[in-house]
């Protein structure tokens, strides 16, 4: 069955058009059922916040994602906890033991100077696929535009495969205001001169997702997606929802 003209989606081991889900404790049996049906819509799985450290059956969960060729990493909060306690080396060794080869380097909870984050990226980039992150989880924090732009550029130059724009799982900080409004002017200006395919926009709700799809096309990279929203999101990407009904094919590399 293939008779509709729909926006073309990237497939297989995608380099862009990524859907990155946030796993905040999905039971293993439930996860297996979801992935059996919808794994083709998932590229990356984040075991959210610091929950990986206390997740029962962690190795089994990692292996389940790997079975479906989904890349796994742990939430940046866990990286920051290890940094705060001086345990980055322990953290890196633990990731290797678990067979995790993606790592997030963030500063959403504590203020890790950019210079020190760049040093960490330099240290791990030959052994890990590195995700950087820009923005604070503090809804009261308003980072200047120039800082957003500087950090995005420098993190990509330092070797991050992708850089995540902070939005939290609630969509109330970073690229969103504390009432959930999307900071459209900030997004418009911060992406100028960047390859948007290198960015992963945290978009935890269908409303957030529709905004980025309509602005950047079906193959925009989206993160913090809920497992239960996978089919809805893929339908939105293909112009099969009212709000994206007239979506045209477009390259995901243009500013708003």
TrEMBL record:
Domain of life according to the entry: Bacteria
SUPFAM superfamilies xref list: (2r)-phospho-3-sulfolactate synthase ComA (SSF102110)
Pfam family, one: ComA
Gene3D superfamilies associated with the record: Aldolase class I
InterPro entries: Aldolase_TIM, ComA_synth, ComA_synth_sf
Record-stated family: Belongs to the phosphosulfolactate synthase family.
PANTHER family referenced in this protein's UniProt entry, alphabetically: PROTEIN HEAT-STRESS-ASSOCIATED 32, PTHR48413
Protein name, UniProt field: Phosphosulfolactate synthase
Organism this protein belongs to: Litchfieldia luteola
Lineage: Bacteria, Bacillati, Bacillota, Bacilli, Bacillales
